[in-house]
Design brief:
By secondary structure, the protein is an alpha+beta fold. It contains 6 helices and 9 strands. The strands form 2 sheets. The chain has a 7-stranded mixed beta sheet, with helices on both faces. Strands 3-6 form a two-stranded antiparallel sheet. The N and C termini lie far apart (56 Å).
Length: 257
């Protein structure tokens, strides 16, 4: 959690939640970064998660972590093998999570542990789109592609990231690179911005009035009925009704009566 907190932008509040407490806190967060849970917990979590919440599943280099739990529920395979460091991700498609780190055909080193593993998953069986492959050095100067290592599924509001997290592996946090921390922070920010709906929904009732406060159109008329003609596209700002139930009033200039 500390590595994520240090790399996320302003506006994020990172909270570490133990697996035993996960199901009791599902309603409390917009984005869940799951590092290591068992299959039953993941299954129950997916049942509780709403359409406004996003998931980032991580897979430690040795495997058997968040992506593996998700794979067991969804029915696709994950893999891991002893690696020749460095271990990383080879970018195969452009995506915002790689901004400032790597382009297509370039690599992001994830960890440099001298005695560890590399993890990947079955991208053909997974419902999302693979945007990077896992690799290790293969014992040679050039990297050896293992299989999919980062994928995005917009319909499920989730991203999968392999080769990150020390849980159950020989890699310590000190072995993970600054780029790996930045990448995962980018992934979380993307999940929050694109897949998670934050804030409290509310309804705006429009009361079109003139300068004297007199109604110039039917009360509670929809904004689509007001912002027409020369006023189409006029920007308005509405505020949430406060807890005391009193409406916040705001001027709307230029209404065509």
């Amino acid at each position: 959690a500390a590595e994520l907190d240090e790399n996320l932008g302003d506006g994020f509040d990172v909270t570490l939640v133990a697996e035993d407490d996960l199901l009791d806190t599902v309603a409390a967060f917009d984005v869940f970064v799951i590092e290591n849970v068992d299959t039953d917990t993941m299954d129950a979590f997916l049942e509780e998660r709403t359409d406004e919440q996003a998931l980032v599943a991580l897979e430690a280099p040795i495997g058997s972590a968040g992506v593996s739990a998700l794979a067991n529920v969804r029915g696709f395979d994950t893999f891991s093998n002893q690696a020749d460091e460095p271990v990383g991700l080879n970018v195969t498609q452009e995506h915002p999570v790689f901004e400032g780190l790597a382009g297509v055909g370039e690599q992001i080193e994830m960890h440099e542990a001298s005695f560890s593993d590399v993890s990947w998953f079955d991208g053909d069986a997974y419902s999302g789109t693979v945007v990077a492959d896992s690799y290790d050095s293969g014992g040679f100067d050039e990297f050896d592609i293992k299989g999919p290592g980062l994928a995005v599924d917009e319909s499920e509001r989730e991203l999968l990231v392999a080769n990150y997290g020390p849980s159950g592996s020989f890699a310590d946090w000190d072995d993970f690179t600054d780029d790996s921390h930045e990448l995962v922070a980018n992934v979380v920010e993307h999940a929050a911005e694109e897949f998670a709906t934050t804030g409290t929904p509310f309804t705006v009732d429009v009361h079109p009035t003139d300068d004297e406060g007199e109604l110039v159109a039917p009360e509670f008329v929809g904004s689509s009925d007001v912002l027409t003609g020369e006023n189409a596209g006029v920007e308005i700002t509405a505020e949430q009704v406060p807890e005391d139930g009193e409406f916040n009033e705001f001027p709307l200039d230029g209404v065509d009566d």
